[in-house]
Structure formats: C-alpha cells, structure tokens
C-alpha cells in the first residue's frame, strides 16, 4: 500500500528553526486515515538474539519496523512519529545512514530520549512507532 499524498503530510514551517536532525517538525494525518500504534521495537534478530553491539541493535530495530509495517500493508511513508529511547549515546552517522534509507527525504516526526534502562537489561535502543494509512 502506498500512502495517498493527503493521508500523511510532513512540514517544516519556514518561520520555525530548522530541525536539528533528520525529522519533520509537523506531521499531519488526514481525517479518514486509520491510526496504527505499535509496541516499541527492539534490536532482536530473526533468531531471537539481541546482539551486544549498539549499532547492530539499531540496524535490527529498523529492519523490524519495516517488517512490522509490511505486516499491516504499510510502508515507511505511513509512519507519522517515532520516539527513540536509548541507553547509550547514538552513533548518528550509523543511525541516520539507515534512517535515511528507510524514510528518505521527508522523514517522520521524532523525539529522542536518553534513559537509564529499557525493559530488558541487554536492550540499548527501542523505537516507538506511530503510523497512519
């Protein structure tokens, strides 16, 4: 399913400071769209292994998000907001390399928080995803 251009619209108003990262300040969802709220996605792989490496957890998490969206006949274009929870400093070069491949030139809205722990001690990052379609 491809997003109808009016289902999800993203903006960075000109009179507001530019985003400090790869995200959109405003994401608008049309009135007729269905809202999807997904549980936080983690860096577990297809063998149910959570790697020790932070960047590998980032890669796995993004792959899991794409697969989860696909399971609902959605694409990354349907994502309206992602909250990022990390227990370690994010390697933004690695993160944005994958993020930009997945979301392209008009990424969703984003919030980032560094926290002391997640649901399992081996987790280093979790992404909370909202989508509309």
UniProtKB/TrEMBL annotation:
It comes from Paenibacillus filicis. Gene3D superfamilies: RutC-like. Pfam families: Ribonuc_L-PSP. PANTHER family: BLR7761 PROTEIN, YJGH FAMILY PROTEIN. One of its GO terms (molecular function) is hydrolase activity. It is an enzyme of class 3 (hydrolase). This is RidA family protein. Keywords: Hydrolase. It comes from the Bacteria. Its EC number is 3.5.-.-.
């Amino acid at each position: 399913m491809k997003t109808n251009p009016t289902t999800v619209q993203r903006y960075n108003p000109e009179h507001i400071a530019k985003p400090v990262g790869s995200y959109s300040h405003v994401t608008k969802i049309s009135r007729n769209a269905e809202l999807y709220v997904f549980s936080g996605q983690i860096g577990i792989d297809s063998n149910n292994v959570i790697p020790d490496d932070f960047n590998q957890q980032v890669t796995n998490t993004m792959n899991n998000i794409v697969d989860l969206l696909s399971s609902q006949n959605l694409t990354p274009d349907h994502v309206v907001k992602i909250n990022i929870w990390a227990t370690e400093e994010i390697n933004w070069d690695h993160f944005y390399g994958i993020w930009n491949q997945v979301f392209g030139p008009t990424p969703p809205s984003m919030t980032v928080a560094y926290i002391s722990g997640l649901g399992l001690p081996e987790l280093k990052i979790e992404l909370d995803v909202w989508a509309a379609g």
